[in-house]
Amino acid sequence: MIEAVGLTKRYGAKTAVYNLSFQVRPGVVTGFLGPNGSGKSTTMRMILGLDRPSAGHVTIGGHPFRQLPNAPRQVGALLDAKAVHGGRSARSHLLSLAQLAGIPAQRVDEVLGVVGLQDVAKRRSKGFSLGMGQRLGIAAALLGDPQVLLFDEPVNGLDPEGILWVRNLMKKLAAEGRTVFVSSHLMSEMALTADHLIVIGRGQLLADMSVTDFISANSADFARVRTPHTEPGQREKLTAALMEAGGQVMSEPDGALRVTGLPLPRISDLAHDADVRVWELSPHQASLEEAYMRLTQGAVDYRSTDDRLAHLQPPQQPGHPGYGMPPQPVVQDVPQQGWYAPPPPGQNPYAGAPGQQPVPGPYAPPAAQQPAAPQPSDTTKDAR
Amino acid sequence: MTAPAQHHAPAPHSYVSPIPVRRAHLGDALASEWTKIRSVRSTLWTLGVMVLLMVAIGLGVAAIAANAGEQGMGDESALGFGFFGMLPASICVITLGVLTIASEYGTGMIRTTLTACPSRARVLTAKAIVFFLLVFTVTTVVAALVGAVQVALVDAADTPTTGEWLRATVGAGGYLAMLGLLSLALGTLIRHSAGAITVMIGVLLLPLVAAMFMFSEALKSVQEWLFTYAIPSQMIALYAARPPFGDDGPSGWEPLLIMTGVAGVALAGAFSLLNSRDV
């Protein structure tokens, strides 16, 4: 059990983590999500006592990490797969950590087998691929056979087989009653691995709920409507009718309309009343990835701009061509990035209190996508 | 044991490892640091080059002195030639001392280490002990071998006393190991290999170079002080019975005491900063 209370970390004027409170419970895989620079790694370092919080505290099993008796036997962590002296062999690296923690040396060969590095144990880790480095880092985390495990981006650089292995390993570890806390950028991966999610943005808690609740609370559902492109007038007609009925309409690049705020049957009725033929009327449901992007869109620190090659273009001719143009069309285009459908009425994703019962979106199925049921892993053979 | 199915208590910390749990102590940290220091090639390279330099320069100087014949040695023993090997050897020791800790910062290994052992003082103590013993043993043994050959080669010099023998072996080894500990402390404070090595080489050589160019009369006292207490001067003084520079300068065992004090202060600073700083 990891418990953070009012955790805050400031670096000079920059606040990396602000007033973060959460609990990570044993027996389930808890995913830790957030955009780059949102404070995930800082939080993990504070949990491990590497960084001192500016305010608040975080405990593991009731003790701050540095006061834990036998800390390496209770907590294992993978922070950075490259945090290895490249000149040292995989086995020497693990042996030095085992000796430091008072763990028997034969455990080193066990974990090397668990992560599948037994054949390269004597090789210097400088020549390891990123995936092999991740496996070595996971081996170090498993060394003490601890009850609390932290993994920072464990699937970075792994091949599909490795990703499947990590997924099953996390589930197996959690099923044994351990506390498993995993950060990742891969939402699809988290949907399959995690049972519970803690989402932060700009160092603050955005959500602390189960994966199913998270998707339905933040689902960005919309309807896609396509009218015959041979008759552009019909599109304008339908747009006007839909907006009159209170829907929000946006134009997709290929000419389809993205409609929110109206249920599918109502759109069909409106089209019928307006005498507009419809070629496509389809519901679009949010994946965890979209739900996450929508939740965190206001908290992204690093956003790319269009590469306009501005100063390479010839200078603009005088007599600005923009003047005298007709007013902007009513229907906006769907932006290339950074736009997601607004939340269902009466729901503010930033006010998502833990345990809050979410109202399903208008197009949400009765039960939102369930994460795949844990499968017993037979690919790993950790004797313990 | 009649109803094992009833044992479902999903309380926190329900997983218990079958590996016996025992408290780790300084001995474990020493074993770990020994594994670390012997499993990287930089240790072999720096110590190998150091031994090579001490042997080659020590024997070369002794051979030249032996060919020069009877004149010029006075009442000095041939062990004093050990200084010429000790100076380049100190650069190797500085490099190894800095790398012992700064390479962990450079690679990020320090975070893994401090996760496996939250007691930072224990980690630094273990590093200091392992490094000191390794450098002290190697330099003392090599200095003894080179010294024996020098004494045998140069007939013109006096036969060294027991005190001179001790200072030229244990004293030289201790001095270099303490200089290495100073580098280790500086590596802990600066956390950057190249930066710490540069600073240490500056500390080693610059005072003497600066003093050489202090021609002004007003700087006379500063120049004298630098000539007396610069690290190479202290190494020469280690081999001398009387102060070789100035009347109240260090001689005999005093340079070792001075270096031990400096390294102790630097290590104390390293301990307190390592303990309070984010890694």
From TrEMBL, chain A:
- Entry keywords, A to Z: ATP-binding, Nucleotide-binding, Transport
SUPFAM superfamilies xrefs: P-loop containing nucleoside triphosphate hydrolases
A Gene Ontology molecular-function term? Answer: ATP binding
The residue ranges flagged as biased composition, category Low complexity, are: 366-376
Q: Where is this region: Disordered?
A: 310-384
Q: Which residues cross the membrane?
A: none
All copies of the ABC transporter domain together span 2-227
Q: Which family does it belong to?
A: Belongs to the ABC transporter superfamily.
The family database entries (PANTHER family) matched by this protein are listed as: ABC TRANSPORTER, ATP-BINDING PROTEIN (PTHR43335)
Q: What is this protein called?
A: ATP-binding cassette domain-containing protein
Q: What is the lineage of its organism?
A: Bacteria, Bacillati, Actinomycetota, Actinomycetes, Kitasatosporales
UniProtKB/TrEMBL annotation, chain B:
Query: For this UniProt entry, which segments traverse the membrane?
Result: 44-66, 78-102, 129-153, 165-187, 194-215, 256-274
UniProt entry keywords in alphabetical sequence: Membrane, Transmembrane, Transmembrane helix
Q: Does the keyword Membrane apply?
A: yes
Q: Which Pfam families match?
A: ABC2_membrane_4 (PF12730)
Its domain of life?
Answer: Bacteria
Q: Which PANTHER family match?
A: INTEGRAL MEMBRANE PROTEIN-RELATED, MEMBRANE PROTEIN
**What name appears for this protein in its UniProt entry?**
ABC transporter permease
